[in-house]
Design a protein that fits this description.
The protein is of the alpha/beta class. The longest helix is centred in the N-terminal third of the chain and has 21 residues. The protein starts with a helix and ends with a helix. The chain binds alpha-D-glucopyranuronic acid.
């Protein structure tokens, strides 16, 4: 009898352990929760105008995300510099100008360099530019033979021709379907991109990349409240912005990113108000999706699979999303009043499209303080029917990816809100 009871208890424990590790895709199993109000401070004060938002609420939210989610940048750089490596007026059959700029960051006698690839529409005096990281090298976004191949650590991928953690000539143009460069150029926009591995290799190892520049003697990894890789990549986008804001061929810069790099674009937009707008393409957990819904990827899951992405202090919320005093809609609100576009894909359940939409909806109250239109209704729009306000949203058919459809929407929205 005792033995059967023990077995039942044990089986229940095993089951609940499995439930914890099985992603939830059932809307009826989403926990009941209240999204913390962006307009009520941690002390319970009502925030009723943009001044109170900027002076009181925004700083405390930013601080929370800095200390408990993405991690703080430890110090300032000692120096940074830019070098034009190459340029041409004859890219894309003479329709575009190309520049490749080396950005060097200096700290504690060490230097980290990365290369910004910039395409600009010819015949436009200064153009708005989308700035986003790519996953495997600048040469993967275009068939252009002049684009340099990075030598930084790259995740092996046979299809892309990445062997021994090095990109090769075979990788050239392999991801060009994700970057509608010709379409952007024809519509008067530029594109700036960087291989994210040059700023920080995407592996659970803090020995290299940007973090290592800031270590004190004998230090091997960031301190518990300090930056993970997402914050380091966001820092890199800001340094690219340092260059772009001084390039007279560029007017505005919109931070763009897909998936993990969408999380990066959002954090860059929250921490650096020079970005004229932000686009999150399928950014999911730790990006635009609400954590408290625990749908698809969860905080525990992301921290276990990618222990280097967030600050160590974020781990205290593994399977305890209900104890988080904030949620991701408040990250989105930190971007206000700058235009924000959140995009999802129907089959990308891992990223929780509904959670991404609701976060953009809940962030909208902050945009309203500035008299700007957000997503008024709690109801998701139909598939392929974008809502394009200062806060914009679409859900398209298909999988986790960046498609021409996505870029077409960003261009239309950009023309209205960013030109
Ligand atoms: C994984 C990860 C996601 C991330 C995605 C990507 O699926 O769990 O959080 O967004 O990779 O970057 O492709």
């Amino acid at each position: 009898m005792k033995c059967t009871l023990f077995l039942i208890v044990l089986m229940n424990m095993v089951q609940s352990l499995f439930a914890q590790f099985e992603p939830n895709y059932d809307e009826s199993k989403v926990p009941l929760f209240e999204a913390p109000d962006p307009l009520i401070s941690f002390k319970g004060e009502q925030i009723s105008d943009s001044l109170a938002w900027e002076k009181k609420r925004r700083p405390e939210l930013l601080r929370f995300f800095e200390q408990k989610v993405y991690g703080e940048v430890p110090e300032t750089l000692d120096a940074f510099s830019f070098k034009l490596l190459e340029q041409s007026d004859e890219a894309y059959e003479g329709k575009a100008r190309r520049k490749q700029i080396e950005i060097s960051l200096r700290k504690n006698n060490s230097v980290l360099t990365f290369t910004l690839l910039l395409y600009l529409p010819k015949g436009k005096i200064n153009a708005p530019v989308f700035l986003g990281y790519n996953f495997h090298g600048n040469h993967t976004v275009t068939a252009d033979l002049q684009v340099h191949i990075p030598t930084a650590w790259n995740k092996n991928n046979e299809d892309l021709g990445i062997i021994g953690n090095q990109a090769t000539e075979t990788s050239r143009g392999k991801r060009k379907h994700r970057w509608a460069i010709e379409k952007l150029i024809e519509n008067g926009f530029g594109l700036a991109t960087i291989f994210y591995g040059e700023v920080d290799p995407d592996k659970n190892d803090f020995s290299d990349g940007l973090h290592s520049l800031f270590y004190e003697e004998g230090q091997q990894r960031p301190k518990p409240n300090e930056w993970g890789s997402i914050a380091a990549w966001a820092f890199g986008l800001s340094r690219a912005m340092d260059y772009l804001e001084n390039d007279s061929d560029v007017s505005k810069v919109i931070a763009f990113g897909h998936s993990r790099l969408g999380k990066v674009a959002l954090w860059a937009g929250a921490t650096d108000q020079r970005f004229a707008g932000v686009i999150s393409n399928n950014s999911g957990c730790g990006g635009a999706a609400l954590s408290k819904r625990m749908y698809g990827e969860t905080v525990g899951r992301i921290n276990r699979s990618f222990p280097h992405w967030f600050s160590d202090s974020f781990e205290q919320y593994n399977e305890k999303e209900n104890t988080l005093p904030v949620d991701q809609h408040q990250l989105l609100a930190l971007i206000a009043p700058k235009p924000l576009y959140v995009a999802s894909a129907v089959e990308d359940r891992w990223a929780d499209p509904k959670g991404e939409f609701l976060a953009a909806h809940y962030a909208s109250s902050v945009y309203e303080l500035y008299g700007l239109d957000g997503l008024l209704h709690r109801q998701m729009p139909a598939v392929n029917e974008p809502i394009q306000k200062t806060v914009a949203y679409h859900i398209r058919h298909g999988q986790h990816d960046v498609t021409t459809y996505d870029w077409e929407q960003y261009i239309t929205w950009g023309r209205t809100f960013l030109e």
